Amino acid sequence: MAKVLLERIGSPIESAVDLNDYRKNLQEMEKLNSSYISKREKIKAGWGERYVERVHKKGKMTTWERIEFLKDPESKIFPIGTFVNYGIDFFDGKSNRTSPAAGVITAFVKINGRYSVVIANDNTVASGSWWPLTPEKIERAQEIALKLRIPVVYLIDCSGLFLPEQSKTFPGKTGAGYIFKMNALLSANQVPQIAGVFGDCIAGGGYMPIISDVVYMTEQAYMVIAGAALVKGGKSQKITSLIIGGPDVHVHLSNCADHRVPDDETALLKIKDEIGKLPTPANDYYRYGQDAAPPFFDPAEIEGILPTDYRVTYDMKQVFARILDNSLFWELFPNKGKEIICGVGRINGNYVGLIANNQNLTDHPVHKNMKRPGGILYREGIAKMTSFARACNDDGLPLIWLQDVAGFDIGPEAEKMGLLGYGSDLLYTISNNTNPVITVLLRKASGAGYYAMNGRPYEPIIQLSTPLTRLAVMEGRTLAIGAYRTKLDENFNIISTTQEEYDAVKKGMEDVEQRITKDMDPILSARQLDTDEIILLHELRPYLEAMVEMCYQSIGYRRVKNPRIWAMHDIKALF
User: Fold this and answer.
1) Other C-beta atoms within 10 Å of 310: how many?
2) Is-contact 347 324, C-beta < 8 A?
3) Helix (H, G, I), strand (E, B), or coil: what is residue 252?
4) What is the largest CA-CA distance in the chain?
5) Once rounded to an integer, what is the mean pLDDT over residues 148-171?
6) Rounded Cα distance, 533 and 461, in Å
7) Alpha-carbon distances of 48 from 42, 51, 77, 122, 242, rounded to whole Å
8) How would you write 291-324 as a 3-class SS string?
9) How buried is residue 50: exposed, middle or buried, by Cβ count under 10 Å (0-12/13-18/19+)?
């Protein structure tokens, strides 16, 4: 019978990298980390202490207090969508308003030993209103829960759409109405949904909990199609929203809710109890007797291994050694397509497949005295990724893509070798595979290479970026050359007849380069949901632990083969 034989990879940091480079990288990352931590704290504060006090005066907890109360002791909260709408102002008719995190918190939270997707309106931001991209952020969290069949917990405290911007949230295909379709799809696929209603639940906020399996309402909560103000205006009735749709109505008359509870704490305890009734996670079953273990090398060292300058190379296997249990790895196709590294390891005790770009120079497969730069996709590496991705899908392994890719090889040789065809085969594979996929953009995520390595358009379970991520078609300088190619000679020197013409072309190229470089700020992609979350490099292992555990938590919805009968063994025997 075939056994999975994992081997130790990596080395102590003093021999893995030059220590001067390591210290320099750490210093630069510390500055970046500080900036991101400051931004996160500002977002988490919502509209500030004044609005926190308003919530407390009502006898309610803030949304973050609810989530902290809900999670298991000693466990971590893993937010996604933190930077949605970051830095964007919206006008409410009186002044400009921000919507930190789009006014809704979405996170992976361990509750009673089981990971759940928590979707919670931020009641310190316009009473939990829905802003532009709030629906899409909620739907993204629901989509992840649907793919992994893990419970959804709604903590609802929502006063409906932010009306001055309703045209951006109400009518579109993925506007507010699509949230309720996702509610229905989750229900149809037997994904548990539990709702706690804590305050205002107007219009869409009122519809959101109804399809849930269990709905709890506090004494301050109400669910209404239209609030008292609209009823007063439309029907001339002086009445309160609580009278229209409070627990007296929906628990005892309409049956739109199941239970009434006195306060926030009680509701959260009841939600914990409901999660505890679900089947226990299947992770131990799929570990096949292997305990979870930390990497042999410190995961925090990744911050000193990755150079902040995207042009400087590093050893990707040293990164593997700091995210895999005991730093053990089984490499497949080690002598083919060396610009790509792929193989199997464990994270938190469970098996995963990994594909990553080798950043170092590799031997040319035909021209023996030539070297090829790393981070570029060539024929053998593309074929290697396709075969390995298919094997992971067949064996039921979650697949992690670690991108640091500059794009596909170009030129006459690349075309003669049929890279278009090999790339299409890879795209077909990742489009049709059904195993859970996690994509991490470490540094470069350029051109079609970003697509081919399971970028966001190919629907990974989650896509994570880092402060170093540069997501774009190409680097700014290269794009500027392409944009002004008719003004350049074959060596990319400016062709001009006058100094004025030369200066105009030079300035135009510089402006393009600067704009593209600015556009590659990872916050820009995160604020428009082109990536799910920006994590710090020392958070990579914890996020992967949580994601892999979620991939194995539920049982019976996807094929997971015993390691003895993996297709991987056939690949190993043949190559």
Assistant:
1) 20
2) yes
3) coil
4) 87
5) 86
6) 12
7) 8, 6, 21, 12, 27
8) CCCCCCCCHHHHHHHCCCCCCCCCCHHHHHCCCC
9) exposed
Distances (CA, A) of 498 to 327, 484, 487: 61, 17, 13
CB 545 within 8 A of CB 347: yes
Please report, for residues 255, 260, 307, 354, 558, the alpha-carbon distance to residue 395 in angstroms, rounded to integers and kept in the order given.
45, 46, 35, 14, 10
Please report, in angstroms and rounded to a whole number, the separation of the first and last CA atoms in the chain: 18
Q: Which fold has domain 47-278?
A: 2-enoyl-CoA Hydratase; Chain A, domain 1 (3.90.226)
Find, among 321, 328, 327, the residue nearest to 302 by Cα.
321
Q: CB–CB of 218/242 below 8 Å?
A: no
236 — pLDDT class (breaks 50, 70, 90)? very low
Does residue 305 contact residue 538 with C-beta atoms inside 8 Å? no
In terms of Cβ atoms closer than 10 Å to its own Cβ (0-12, 13-18, 19+), residue 120 is buried
Element (H, E) at 393: helix 379-395
CA distance 430 to 385: 10
Residue whose entry in the numeric block shows the structure tokens 């109405």: 177
For β-strands 7-8 and 328-332, DSSP reports them as antiparallel
Say if pTM beats, i.e. exceeds, 0.90.
yes
CATH class of 289-469+521-574: alpha beta
Tokens of 285: 């079953």
R_g (Cα) of the chain, nearest Å: 26
Residue written as tokens 């392994």? 397
Q: Which position has the token pair 């697949």?
A: 399
Residue 373 CB partners (closer than 8 Å, separation 6+): 361, 406
pLDDT tens-place string over residues 31-54: 999 999 999 999 999 999 999 999
Q: Which of 530, 398, 551 is nearest to 464 (CA)?
A: 530
Q: How far is it, in rounded angstroms, from Cα 18 to Cα 313?
A: 12
pLDDT at position 241, please?
64
| Token pair 């396709």 in the structure block, residue | 386
Instruction: Give the contacts of 80 (CB within 8 A, at least 6 positions apart).
Output: 106, 107, 108, 140, 141, 144, 462, 532, 533
Retrieve residue 73's tokens.
């002791």
Residue 357 structure tokens:
């770009």
Per-residue pLDDT band at 554 (split at 50, 70, 90) = very high
